[in-house]
Write a structure and sequence with these properties.
Helix content is 55%, strand content 3%. With 450 residues, it is mainly α. The relative contact order is 0.11. The chain binds fe (ii) ion (2 copies).
Length: 450
């Protein structure tokens, strides 16, 4: 280990100790392999010098050893190589995360294990085809089109006012919303209204029949052995108001189908969103909250503000994606700098405009800063779920590195690493199935099919 002045650092060096700002704020964990952006960040925070690992000199070529007779090791990478590569990739992605926290450290280890497994599987497939083993790939970042910086930025209110699609939602949405807000409305009212929209009903039935609701549907199946094939049965499984809440979430998906793919891969975006929703629902259940369905819908829509930005301000959105990559800040911070507000704020306003329940609006609005302490538990569920989908690379909404896990959120949900592992074990494998129920035919709905 040797102390090196920040001005003398170069990319590729490895930190031997955790780095803190002169004010004592944690910046990067020991083991971080420095990239150019790290160097900018260290200089920006006024860090003087850091401890780096001294590279071990390579052993000089010696005489042939006595074990010459030993058969040569099989060609190609070994499990330890995949683990090492996965560890290095994860260190780069987790730089905003305080890995001394038990929950964050557990998720870091899970992420490394998943990446190593993925690399090993890819290498096995490649060797079958006689190709070299692939390395972890960096996600491409769109280049902002020329003149993007000069594009005027409207206020969030103006942005939402100008889009006729965002202003007038399908009639079924408005009617479901009325049912949700009317204490006199019945389960049958909710089912009847949803039933007037064939595409929406089909999607909800698929969702309710998926493994996501297996436990709840088992109880209904005992009484009604056939598959759930009517909305009334779907109502029995998830409840009338909950089905209406789900319908609210599902009915807005087609609005954002025409976003240019160079800004966001919509399939990856909805996987991130559905994954976040499913984990949020499981976290809410784990915390003993009855807001499972609201948490699912809030997770599904938590980054909807980003879709509004990609759709209406593609130039500055591309610039924010690039800035987050180059300047060592999160995409949410880059949005704040470029737009003057972030996607959580914009998404919250949109849900308010659509008259979603206030709790849902808060979960979306504050999922990155947790907002008012009084409401901390609800947005905390979305914050932790979002951290997990980012950390485990379940889809993406554009964030390149893993955003920080706020200790207040972990505390609000009284979470431990063991809890999180349990929650994930019950959910992860079902994400693909639920994704398919939203987007049958590999993204058919993303292309705007009814
Ligand atoms: Fe977000
Ligand atoms: Fe997100």
């Amino acid at each position: 280990m040797v102390k090196v002045s920040v001005s003398d650092l170069s990319p590729g060096m490895e930190l031997a100790e955790d780095v803190k700002t002169p004010g004592g704020r944690f910046l990067m964990p020991r083991g971080t392999r420095l990239e150019r952006s790290h160097l900018t960040m260290l200089a920006g925070w006024g860090v003087g010098d850091v401890d780096v690992v001294v590279a071990r000199p390579k052993a000089p070529p010696g005489p042939p050893s006595a074990d010459r007779e030993t058969p040569p090791a099989p060609e190609g990478p070994k499990p330890a190589d995949f683990f090492e590569q996965a560890m290095e990739a994860a260190r780069g992605r987790f730089v905003f995360v305080d890995l001394r926290e038990e929950v964050a450290a557990t998720v870091f280890r899970l992420s490394v294990a998943r990446t190593a497994k993925r690399l090993a599987r890819a290498a096995l497939e490649a060797s079958g085809k006689g190709a070299p083993a692939p390395k972890p790939q960096a996600r491409p970042v769109p280049k902002p089109p020329a003149g993007a910086a000069a594009e005027p930025i409207p206020t969030p209110e103006d942005l939402l006012r100008e889009d006729p699609q965002l202003v007038s939602l399908p009639e079924v949405f408005t009617r479901i919303n009325e049912v949700l807000h009317d204490p006199r409305s019945s389960v049958e009212d909710a089912a009847r209204i949803i039933g007037t929209d064939a595409s929406l009903s089909a999607k909800l039935l698929k969702l309710v029949n998926s493994a996501f609701y297996r436990r709840a549907s088992r109880a209904v199946e005992k009484r009604f052995p056939a598959k759930v094939d009517s909305l009334t049965r779907a109502v029995m499984i998830v409840g009338g108001k909950q089905l209406a809440t789900l319908a609210l979430g599902v009915s807005v998906l087609p609005i954002f189908r025409d976003i240019p793919p160079e800004y966001i891969n919509m399939k990856a975006f909805w996987k991130h969103s559905i994954g976040c929703g499913m984990i949020a629902r499981a976290l809410a259940e784990h915390a003993g909250s009855s807001a499972g369905e609201s948490s699912f819908v809030a997770g599904l829509l938590h980054d909807i503000g980003r879709l509004v930005l990609y759709k209406h301000l593609p130039g500055p959105s591309g610039a924010s994606l690039r800035r987050s990559r180059e300047e060592f800040i999160t995409l949410t911070q880059a949005e704040g700098e470029i737009f003057g507000f972030d996607h959580g704020h914009l998404g919250g306003l949109l849900l308010r405009k659509w008259q979603y329940p206030a709790a849902l609006e808060k979960m979306v609005r504050y999922h990155h800063d947790l907002g008012e302490p009084l409401f901390i538990e609800e947005p905390a569920v979305i914050h932790v779920a979002d951290f997990l989908v980012n950390a485990l690379e379940i889809g993406t909404s554009g964030e390149w590195r893993v955003p920080a896990l706020l200790p207040a959120a972990v505390e609000a949900l009284s979470l431990t690493g063991t809890d999180l592992k349990k929650v994930l074990a019950g959910v992860e494998e079902r994400i693909e199935e639920v994704f398919a129920s939203f987007f049958p035919g590999d993204g058919e709905a993303l292309r705007g099919a009814p």
